[in-house]
Amino acid sequence: MSSKKVNMQAKSEESPASEKTIFEAIATNDLDEFKNILGQHKDSVDFFDENGMSVLQHAAYKGNKDMVQLLLDRGADVNSGKHEYNYTALHFGALAGSSEVCKLLLDAGAKPTATNSVGRTASQMAAFVGNHHTVATINNFIPRSEIAFYTIPQGQQTEPYLPFFLVDPLHKFVLGVNIHPVRLALNLQNSPILLDNADKASKVLELLSKKEMTRGTETNEVMSFKYHYLSYIIREIHNIRDKQRPSGKKEEKKYDVVEVFSKKLLKPGKDGVSLDLMDSFLKDCVREFPYRECTTFHQMVASLTSKDPPSALSIINCTINGQRGFVDAIPYCSTCGEEKPAKKCSKCRSVQYCDRECQRLHWFVHKKACNREASAPVTTSNSSTRIIDTNELSSELQNLIAG
Ligand SMILES: [Zn+2]
Ligand SMILES: [Zn+2]
């Protein structure tokens, strides 16, 4: 500790000793030390270790978002690099599996298309090491300016397509990686301003969809479809809200929208398992995609019409988020498809949820199975305890549903 301090104090502007300490501070995740050194270093923070790896690249590789943010605030160049294999800071963030670091770098202008010496982008490297959430974060990223563009009146317009106050909520909505319709509905519920301006938001999403299709060599069919999909979901939820709101308190109605929407989508079909309504709702979305010449559309239709097809949701998720569907061994929220949810049904422990809201929304489906699990094989010796348990738990669930 003391020797480090001596180094810091003794540092001159180009002193390799001081640079070494900042790399050490990163290596040990020592944020205080890192801030200290950075505070004393008045020049550009774009300096390199003996392998040509910049300070920012080290912080990204360590997955330390605080350090990355501090460096970006100090003007670190996200795309500079002298790394012998042409890795960028984004490559390192991707290898570290830190979606947050990647997001910061992308926000600061990191180029997702930059390739390393073996021709791999950051997202491909993340896929290579199995960091799927990071892959999706990078692939779903769009700069805020793409959306802010529509706050400027175009051509003869006196009013722009998008008011300023919708830029950030819409940007956040678009960057979401989980495209499960119920998750999107919950996101909209948490961002009521977007839902209050659903017509503007969905219009801008359709314009963005069109733009992605007309970029020449830069055309991004997947992103185009994602915009179309998000626009479709917003319109649907907005329609439900319009129908649901003859009178009454606004707050209550907003609450209901997600419930009505999820009841429609999560209702099991005749076999008790497959989500037929969800499937037809999403197939309609694919059918309404206006760019029918593109490969992405053809691939989706081919999957949907194949023998024994996967669900429309998994096809759409594969299209937007890469090869992964909701198929891995990772646990998912039974309501909204969020990965690694924090909670389990306290009664049967066989299904998982993000939180009480997700559990509440799924209860109309789960209650049968849950009761079955809970009332299944009870051995004679402890049957009385079992009954008490079940009663306690069901009152707990009742409270949960009520609350
Ligand atoms: Zn959930
Ligand atoms: Zn249960």
Characterize this entry briefly.
One of its GO terms (molecular function) is zinc ion binding. By secondary structure, this protein is mainly alpha-helical. It contains 21 helices and 2 strands.
Structure description:
It contains 21 helices and two strands. Strand 1 (343-344) and strand 2 form a beta hairpin. It has three domains: 3-139, Alpha Horseshoe (Serine Threonine Protein Phosphatase 5, Tetratricopeptide repeat); 144-323, no CATH class; 343-402, no CATH class. A two-stranded antiparallel ribbon has the order 1-2. The longest helix is centred in the middle third of the chain and has 24 residues, at 221-244. Helix 3 runs parallel beside helix 5 (65-73), helix 7 runs parallel beside helix 9 (132-139) and helix 8 (122-128) runs antiparallel to helix 9 (132-139). With 403 residues, the chain is an all-alpha fold. Helix content is 59%, strand content 1%. Residues 1-17 and 378-403 have low confidence and may be disordered. The structure holds zinc ion (2 copies). One zinc ion (ZN) binds at residues 345, 347-348, 351, 366, 370. The site of one zinc ion (ZN) has 8 residues, from loops.
